[in-house]
Predict the 3D structure of the following.
Amino acid sequence: VRGQAPPPPPTRSSVSKSRRLKTRQTRNNKLRISLGASSGPSSESYDTRRRAHGAKATTSESNERNKSRWLDVPRVSYHGVPGAFSSLAAKKLLPDCEPVACETLELVTASVTQWSSDIAILPIQNTLEGTLHDIQDRLVSSGLHIIGEVNIPIIHCLVALPHVEKTQVKRVLSHPSALAQCSTFLKEVDAVREAVYDTAYGAKVIKSESLEDTAAIASSEAAAKYGLKVLEKNIHDKERGENIQRYLILARDPAEYDESVSYKTSLVFTLDEGPGQLFKALSVFALRDMNITKIESRPLRANPILSTDEGTKQFNYIFYLDYLGHTSELKCKQAMRHLQEITPFFKVLGSYPSHG
């Protein structure tokens, strides 16, 4: 147009920003492929919400320095120290991820909500010990979405300093769940059991404090990490079956829907007092030929006692349910609408690829 100045050439910062967005989209596509979705166009909600939280453009030099932290490699927060089973699960799901160790469960989820990591991985069920209820409750309050799951075999090892023999062990350190899963073996060892917050942390303590009369129950990877010797391998209570742990992957945004993928949906709900309330809730799924893969109840912490019409009092329960399907599918939408109408509390925790 005559009299109008030509557009200015792209600045260094705009080129850097374009490169940043392209790299981030590649990282998101890698993550989606690992979770079972196709590599189509990724949602822009990650970038939009990142900017809303105050993310600012930096120089190209700092972009290159932080590339592995924010763009190419997803950061995965987990509970424990390096060598923990959760870190092994993260590596199985995303071999190129950058694990972020957290001392508490609160820090695992907070790391994601505060943008210090991209996703979180938490154990939720074990074939020997059942559901991990503290973590299950955290799913409701964390504000994060379940976007995937992975199952890994748990191979417990008794580990100690290289020159220590099994007969010298007087104390065993490990997570309470690991100690419970190896109770038969520990009776034979006849050692004092001491609980610590993570299996690999027990191995780390033995190494850092040079504890010669102490062993830990941990992974072989933790033993290698801290320079310990494996005294005995696969020591869980074999009479109780295989030791497999299910992990959930949590993120700020829900997983994208791909019609070619089979999905599972997790949700929670409560019921009104009265006869047949649970039957009515489950009929929502039965009427639509939907497959429920898990249902579990436990007392509601906020309001544990419920008064009945007969004048008696009983526990008030919250129900955790998994079914096959995605909330974007028509029959699932209808079921969710129906369930919401007949329950006082209802929340979808996430729809995610059903293979682990």
Remarks:
- The first strand starts at residue 75 and ends at 79.
